[in-house]
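Anyone up for a design puzzle?
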C-alpha cells in the first residue's frame, strides 16, 4: 500500500499550493476536500455555509474522509476544519502520512484578510476568531506525523521539506 500524503492545518497555511506542487512532483492524484465538496454540491463553500449551515458542510467533510480512508497514493488537501475532528484524524491516519502546515494567527490574518471566501472569518473580529480557532484546533493538528512551520517558508521550501521528510 502506498500511503496518502495528507496536508492539514489552518486556512492560509498554503495547503492548496503545496498539494498542487506535490501532486505534480510525485505524479499522484490530488484531492482537495473543499473543491470536491463544492463540485458535489454545485455550490461554493460560502454558499453551502449560507444555504445549509456549517453542520451540513462538516458532515460532507466526514463522508468524504471516510471514503478516502479506503484509497491510497493520493495527495489530500484538507480544508482547515477537517483535521479538527478526532474521527476524521483517525481515518486520515489509517492510510496516510499527515503533515501539519503550521502558521501563526498574525500571518493567517495577513494572508486571508482580503479574501471573501472564508465564511468563518467574515465576522467583526477576524484576528480574534483566528486565535480562538487555532487554540482549539492545535491539539488535533499536532497529532500529525510531521509539523512544518510555514510562517517563514516559501511554498517551494515547504514542498521540499515534505519530500525530505517522506519515509523512503
Ligand atoms: C475552513 C477552512 C476552509 C474551508 C471552510 C472552513 C475551516 O478551507 O474548508 O471555509 O474550518 O478552517 P481552507 O483551509 O482550505 O481555507
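Challenge accepted. My sequence:
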Amino acid at each position: 500500500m502506498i500511503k496518502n500524503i495528507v496536508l492539514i492545518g489552518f486556512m492560509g497555511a498554503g495547503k492548496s499550493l503545496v498539494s498542487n506542487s506535490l501532486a505534480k512532483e510525485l505524479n499522484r492524484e490530488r484531492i482537495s476536500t473543499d473543491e470536491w465538496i463544492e463540485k458535489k454540491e454545485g455550490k461554493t463553500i460560502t454558499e453551502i455555509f449560507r444555504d445549509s449551515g456549517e453542520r451540513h458542510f462538516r458532515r460532507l467533510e466526514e463522508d468524504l474522509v471516510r471514503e478516502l480512508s479506503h484509497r491510497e497514493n493520493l495527495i489530500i488537501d484538507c480544508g482547515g476544519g477537517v483535521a479538527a475532528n478526532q474521527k476524521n484524524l483517525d481515518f486520515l491516519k489509517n492510510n496516510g502520512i499527515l503533515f501539519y502546515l503550521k502558521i501563526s494567527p498574525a500571518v493567517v490574518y495577513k494572508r486571508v484578510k482580503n479574501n471573501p471566501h472564508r465564511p468563518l472569518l467574515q465576522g467583526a473580529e477576524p484576528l480574534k476568531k483566528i486565535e480562538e480557532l487555532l487554540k482549539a484546533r492545535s491539539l488535533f493538528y499536532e497529532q500529525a506525523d510531521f509539523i512544518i512551520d510555514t510562517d517563514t517558508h516559501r511554498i517551494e521550501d515547504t514542498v521540499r521539506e515534505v519530500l525530505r521528510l517522506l519515509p523512503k
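A detail worth pointing out: The two ends are 13 Å apart (CA to CA).
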